[in-house]
Amino acid sequence: MLGIKVAASTVWQILKDAGIDPAAQRTSTSWSNFLRSQAGTLPACDFFETSTLGGTRLYVFAVIEHASRRIRIPGATAHPTASWVAQAAKNLAMDLEDADSSARFLIRDRDGKYPALFDTILADAGIRAVLTGVRIPRMNAIMERWIQSCRRELLDRTLIWNQQHLLHALPEYEQFYNSHRPHQGIANARPLRALPQPAADQTGVAQLDIRRRQRLGGILSEYHHAA
């Protein structure tokens, strides 16, 4: 405002005299440290697209918890309007409250589908929205990895007839993912079920009676001991 140009070396000397380190050496929390320190209170969300046999494009809204890898799929719609997304935020906030979740932050991208009311609803529930950088999907890597799993294990192997069919298939996959499928990111545990104790008597392994339960016509398979 005074029309005075200050050389970069002068700024550097002022910062040095004040004991302020360069930006790369300051003590501010890095993104990776933030994710690690807040993993227990940090869900992430995203929209992804799929299509029906008739060519209708549907948008699925999903939320995953970083620490437990628990997935929630609040819904899917052909028209993600501001009112629909706001209602999804209300449903998510109530679901987290019912589950006694300690979520404090929610990672999301800068998609135009999120209205300002989305962040307001979450803020009223004590959850702060944290936006990822522009075109940096790796900042939401756990959510993106789940979307890849959902496509590979379900959507790429299923012919989706319509929205009702999709809303039937997604809860089945959600339950399979949370209660049966092991996850390498959490030592092959399951989000909602602890791992069984190792068999103490190895001699009985050959006589195990294992049963298979199929979901969605055999797209998904679950294995368990016979009762």
Task: Kindly describe this structure.
By secondary structure, this protein is of the alpha+beta class. It has one domain: Ribonuclease H-like superfamily/Ribonuclease H (Nucleotidyltransferase, domain 5), CATH 3.30.420.10. Helices cover 32% and strands 20% of the residues. It is built from six helices and seven strands, in the order ααβββαβαβααββ. The protein has a three-stranded antiparallel beta sheet, sandwiched between helices. A two-stranded parallel ribbon has the order 4-5. The protein has a two-stranded antiparallel sheet with strand order 6-7. Strand 6 and strand 7 form a beta hairpin. Helix 3 runs parallel beside helix 4. It is globular and about 85 Å long.
Descriptive key words:
227 residues, alpha+beta, 6 helices, 32% helix, 20% strand
Mean pLDDT: 89
**Helix content percent band:** 25-40%
Output the strand order for the largest sheet: 1-2-3
Q: What is the domain tally?
A: 1
- Classify the beta-strand content into a percent band: 15-25%
Distance between the termini: 79 Å
| Number of alpha- plus pi-helical segments | 6
Oligomeric state as shown: single chain
**Which homologous superfamily in CATH is the superfamily?**
Ribonuclease H-like superfamily/Ribonuclease H
Describe the global form.
globular
Strand/helix succession: HHEEEHEHEHHEE
Can you tell me the residue ranges where pLDDT is under 50 for at least 5 consecutive residues? none
Secondary structure class reads alpha+beta
Radius of gyration: 23 Å
Q: In CATH terms, what is the fold-level topology?
A: Nucleotidyltransferase, domain 5
Q: In CATH terms, what is the architecture?
A: 2-Layer Sandwich
